[in-house]
Amino acid sequence: MKISKYILHIVFLTFTMGCSNYYSKQLVEENRNAFPILFKNVHIFNGKDSSLVLNKDVLVENGFIKSITEHSETKNDQAYHIIDGKGKTLMPGLIDAHVHLSGSGAVPWKNVSADETYNLKAYLHSGITTVYDLGGMASDMEKLSKKVGKGELLGPTIYHSHIPITVKNGHPIPLTKEILGWPLKSFVNTIAPTIENADDAEDIIKEYLEERVDYVKIIYDQIPPDSPVMSYDVLEALIDQAHDKGYKVFVHIGSPQNAVDAVNAGANILAHGIWRGKLTSGQADIIASSKVPMIYTLAAFQNVNSINKGEYYPEGIDTLLVPNIILDPVTGAKGLDVESQKAMNAFFDDVTDNGQFLFDNFKLLRERNVRIILGTDSSLPGTYAGSTYLQEMDALKAYGLNNFEILSGATYLPSRLFLDNPDFGTVEVGKKANLLLINGNPLENIALIKSPETILLNGKIIVKVEQ
């Protein structure tokens, strides 16, 4: 059985991934400066506090923050690469807490294979120095993660799950079948980890953890709306088994009842906000009292709705980072071609029909101080590596989050979703030097995040390559 699954994995990867000349842009490169980097007289946003720490010298050496001191003259400036931080802010690199590195963002009727190395550079171009993959092949993600860690591949630090646990023909199987087409569609139920009964939870989680994941992801939602969904007792059994083994669980939800059930069953993180149906005050109270954070992915739903109406038009950052062959089929009236895809069209219609609930649902959760974490669900149709993250910030701002809540939800809070003592997500001595230098104060003007003056990845300066 394991051998046959391995063969299917290889077939799946061969047909769904690969390089293409569509991804010819360099986007970013590493400046291999040999000297320690000294930021002089810089303000600090540490990710945790709603005010800046003013006028500090920050020394970065061997990939980590070595010291944070009062401003003083150095004895030998020639021993450092000095960056003048006057009037600028040093902050943690951004975290996208919901990505799919093996996706291209292309629609089924114009399918384009993904280039994962390009996706990594697109995230980095937008200041994202850490990503949480929530649905790729774990073996493939592990290889990518190791290459990035060794410096063989330029990109954010990668943490990952495996293909999410679902039920037979449940999400994401119908959409995946549509994207892959024949003959791969017949393999999807074999590749995806599926469960029938609560009694199977122990074996399913054991097999899942053998994939060397960082956390577990479970689907508790119906996409498209008539697809099967697992029962509550199965969800609870899976979460209990994962917790027994010491792993946190991300649960993909859609409706208010999905969310309530997930937190009652012990979910650690809710992947997606509540978009299908109207949330009641009582349900919002239950979710808030659980203290479970939520990765809302507002921009993804907004873009899907726009595509479904034939009203989607890429922003400038999209056209810079996303190949035109991916954007063109969903731009303007061309997006209406989604009607040719049964499962995707049903999902898109569901998003449009329920769009009226998005704002009020969010407001109820915001009023109860539910922690909102930034993530994008990229790369899928309407949500793209790097660019959609910046749009997500705009969406959250428009929905009522203040600048501190957005920035903390992009740095400090997601760093602690499944790690007790992460070495990233804050600006502190001993932490990894994944940093952004912002020309101004992002707590006052969050738009400054879209054009960081300097990006540091593991203490190395990342240079944006103009195309």
Q: Could you explain the architecture of this structure?
A:
By secondary structure, the protein is an alpha/beta fold. The strands form three sheets. Strands 1, 2, 3, 4, 5, 6, 15, 16 and 17 form a nine-stranded mixed sheet that branches. It has a five-stranded parallel sheet with strand order 10-11-12-13-14. It has helices spanning 2-16, 116-125, 138-149, 173-180, 188-191, 201-209, 232-244, 256-265, 281-290, 298-308, 316-321, 324-327, 342-353, 358-367, 387-398, 403-409, 412-415; strands at 28-31, 37-44, 53-61, 64-70, 81-84, 89-92, 94-99, 128-133, 157-160, 216-219, 249-252, 269-271, 294-295, 372-373, 435-438, 454-457, 460-464. Helix 6 (201-209) crosses helix 7 and helix 8 (256-265) packs parallel to helix 9. The protein is globular and about 70 Å long.
